Amino acid sequence: ATGVSYASAGAGILDSTNAGNNIPLSKQVRYFGSTKAAMEARVGGAAARVLLSRSFFLFSVGSNDLFVFAAAQPTTGDVAALYASLISGYSAAITDMYGMGARKFGVINVGLLGCVPAVRALSATGGCNDGLNLLSAGFDGALRSLLAGLAARLPGLAYSLADSYNLTQVTFANPAASGTVPYLPCCFILHGFTRD
Fold it and tell me: Any keyword Transcription (predicted)?
């Protein structure tokens, strides 16, 4: 009645991403199927359908897949094949959930992965990794196209796309406007450390 979270740290769209250490997206969707069956047993099929059609389903996934790909194949990987696999998995998840009655989706795209503290810590200058940011931007473009296509072919599907990539760019361009210190990891701020 109050909601369910299937989130799993380190999970990806692909089952192979950090395999064995998380619950991948495909398994999270299967868990949703079990939740739906439990709802139907409790309140009946018709009531469960109404509840699911009014519910909001939030997705934020993909960054771990990109991190794993970049670490394994920093310069030689087939980016087009990666995007195709990720978009296929994302499409299957949303389509399967739609088939189970989900209609309202919120999707958070991938942000500036090349600027996260763990990545910048590996840089001699502490700067962002432009290659990872380009990888993120390409995935986000493919995700945007996927969602528009799904909405066109699945009647009643509604979605909202949160642009984490653009928000992060805006924040980095003018940190004072949002009261942040984007190039200093939060652990440094919380404990009073400096980058030196």
Answer: no
pLDDT category of residue 32 using cuts at 50, 70 and 90: very high
Query: What is residue 175's predicted lDDT score, i.e. its pLDDT?
Result: 76
Q: How is 94-153 classified by DSSP, letter by letter?
A: HHHHHHTT--EEEEE----GGGSHHHHTTSSS----HHHHHHHHHHHHHHHHHHHHHHHH
Query: How many angstroms separate the CA atoms of 165 and 150, rounded?
Result: 22
Domain 25-191 is found in CATH 3.40.50.620: no
Structural domain boundaries in the chain: 25-191
Phi, psi of 52 (to 5 degrees): -65, -40
**22 closest CA partner among 5, 44, 6:** 6
pLDDT tens digits, one per residue of 2-14: 789 999 999 999 9
Secondary element (H or E) of residue 39? helix 25-43
d(CA 89, CA 13): 6
Q: Is the pLDDT of residue 196 over 80?
A: no
CA-CA distance, 24 to 6, in Å (whole number)?
10
